[in-house]
Input
Amino acid sequence: MAIKTGMTVSELLKSIKSRMMLPEANSTFSDDDLIAFMNEEMLIGLVPSLLQMKDDYLTAKFIAPIQSPQVKYPLPERSLGNKLRDLSYSSDGINEYEMTQINSDEKYSGVGMTTNTGYMRQFYMQGDSIVLYPDINSTVQGFLYFYYYMRPNTLVKDAAVATITNIDRNTGAITVDKVPTTYTIASTFDFVKRNSPHSIMTKIDGTPAIDVAASNIQTSAKIITVSDVSLIPNNLQAGDYIALAGESCIPNVPTELHMVLAQRVACRVLEAIGDTAGLNNANAKLQEMEGKTGILFDNRIEGAVHKVKNRGTTRTIRGRSFGRGFF
Output
């Protein structure tokens, strides 16, 4: 089976069943059960393995305009583990300045920097938000750039996702192969790339094209019109997907990991039905697959080795050493 364009959920289901010789008429596990296993294995298996590579797989950007004097800003809703990869500040939307994380109890110490525009560089975590420190005044303007690892969309059946056949970038009308019954004018949508790495596509500013609203849906004509044409990704093309927000019919990871996902689910099912011999064989194969695919994903640019840099001058405050942008 050719997998150069990845495996959709329907193809993954076939692969899983063939790996463990599960008959089509099996009544123990429905397709929905297997899809649920896929989603679990994505989050507990594939995604952590990708993040271990430290090569910025799944990294996305969110831009939050600073609303003075507001100091508390929530983390992006789709951030994995409700955590950030990095945070920066831009006063002009062009140049970025590194933000330094402090502990929440340091806000009592009076060691904060000036609130003048361009020097607002500290923050601490509070629940699901970052809090700027010291308090900003009305003169502080600009943007916060949140860099985070984006949670892959939940896998659903192919029939629940529309494939794009034509794009009118002037009117925002997107023609699709079908309009699933779950698509309504109240829905919001994501754009998903068909080809590897099958990622959630981005807008011109580099932020994900997610939660896009539709101004009109014509079921008979098979046309979905987005409310803002600027939200259509520049590289969106026929064959890509427009899915309900948070959903996808193809795993949002590189093609080479799709077969690993199928093998992981096969192991889950063999374990559940108590097939010890089959499970041992499947686990051995999974270990081989993960080892060899790991070679593919480690060190994404082999000719450009990561260089260790001292990010900012180290200063000592109250007996503690700080780097990363302290001035």
Notes: Residues 50 and 123 are 28 Å apart (CA to CA). The radius of gyration is 23 Å. The mean pLDDT is 86.
